[in-house]
Amino acid sequence: MNAPLAYTAPGIEPDVATERAPRVPFPAARRRAGGLVIEHVSKSFALKSGPLLVLDDISLTVEPGEFVAIVGGSGCGKSTLLRLLAGLDPDYQGRLLHDGVPIAGTGLQRGLVFQDHRLFPWLTVEQNVGLSFTNTSVPEQERRERVAAEIARVGLDGFADAYPHQLSGGMSQRAAIARALVGRPDVLLLDEPLGSLDALTRLRLQQELRRLWQDEGITMLMVTHDIDEAVYLADRIVVLEARPGRVRRIQPVPLPHPRQRGQAGFVAIRDGLHADFA
Ligand SMILES: Nc1ncnc2c1ncn2[C@@H]1O[C@H](COP(=O)(O)OP(=O)(O)OP(=O)(O)O)[C@@H](O)[C@H]1O
């Protein structure tokens, strides 16, 4: 079912838990959904000293099922752009469309994962994941089944009743990913989701994100500071420049998966991107 994994660093073991996890594919119709259009989007914040232009005329089309990474220096507006796409901030100029429909507010069809897991400490993994159903009409029985399936998908079987303080950093991020997946999104918006993890956990979760993307065809839009991670995962890498945030260039990554970090094509793209920030 899954493509064989490439373990690109010594010491990385196959993730047995997720390898064995039952796959509950999302409905096939979802696989043709998840297109995003960012059209001439600008965003300013009102500061005491005057307006701060953070995003300046950003345009980008993300195809359904595409994996796009966004890289750029600190403060160039990466998180701001993701918040707009999530529907968390309606105050911007331009147009944002999800499958042709203007984005207005948050919704289960766009899952959001942050750098910090943002799990509620007083709720179990199961309860945290189930929170996505708040204010929805999904029946109780279906909620329970979908929560259990997503917990299994991210390899947290046996931890449904655990509290966040009983989880490692990587496990907490898996729970956060399960919470985003339980709504069966066609787009995942990932804001540095692996940024707080140790290097080995990070490599493993990169593999799992790739597998999730390949299995489910979810559109992925991921902000990352890690150029290596962007080249490992993305179809295209959007390089933003700062003050104000603008698209400097878009780097395609036409390499087959699973990608080998030592491969000449990989190294050439990575080095080219590093030069952008030299
Ligand atoms: N709510 C806000 N009010 C005022 N300014 C803000 C607000 N949110 C973000 N900013 C400013 O907008 C700019 C872009 O912030 P943003 O968090 O989007 O950048 P980023 O590229 O994600 O940065 P980093 O890589 O450091 O996380 C920064 O100058 C920040 O100070």
SSE map:
Elements: H1 16-20, E1 36-47, E2 50-62, E3 67-72, H2 78-86, E4 93-98, E5 101-102, E6 110-113, H3 125-130, H4 140-153, H5 169-181, E7 187-191, H6 199-216, E8 219-223, H7 227-233, E9 236-241, E10 246-252, H8 264-276
Parallel strand pairs: 3-8, 3-9, 6-7, 7-8
Antiparallel strand pairs: 1-2, 1-4, 4-5, 9-10
Helix pairs in contact: 4-5, 7-8
Bound molecules: adenosine-5'-triphosphate (ATP).
Adenosine-5'-triphosphate binds at residues 45, 52, 54, 72, 74-80.
Structure overview:
The protein has 278 residues and is an alpha/beta fold. The protein has helices spanning 16-20, 78-86, 125-130, 140-153, 169-181, 199-216, 227-233, 264-276, and strands spanning 36-47, 50-62, 67-72, 93-98, 101-102, 110-113, 187-191, 219-223, 236-241, 246-252. The strands form two sheets. It has a six-stranded mixed β-sheet, sandwiched between helices. The protein has a four-stranded antiparallel β-sheet with strand order 2-1-4-5, with helices on one face. α7 (227-233) packs across α8. The relative contact order is 0.20. Residues 1-23 have low confidence and may be disordered. Bound molecules: adenosine-5'-triphosphate. The site of adenosine-5'-triphosphate has 11 residues, from β2 and α2. The site of adenosine-5'-triphosphate (ATP) has 11 residues, from β2 and α2.
Quickly list its features:
278 residues, alpha/beta, Rossmann fold, 2 domains, six-stranded mixed β-sheet, 8 helices, 10 strands, 31% helix, 24% strand, disordered N terminus, binds adenosine-5'-triphosphate, ABC transporter ATP-binding protein, ATP binding, cell membrane, hydrolase, membrane
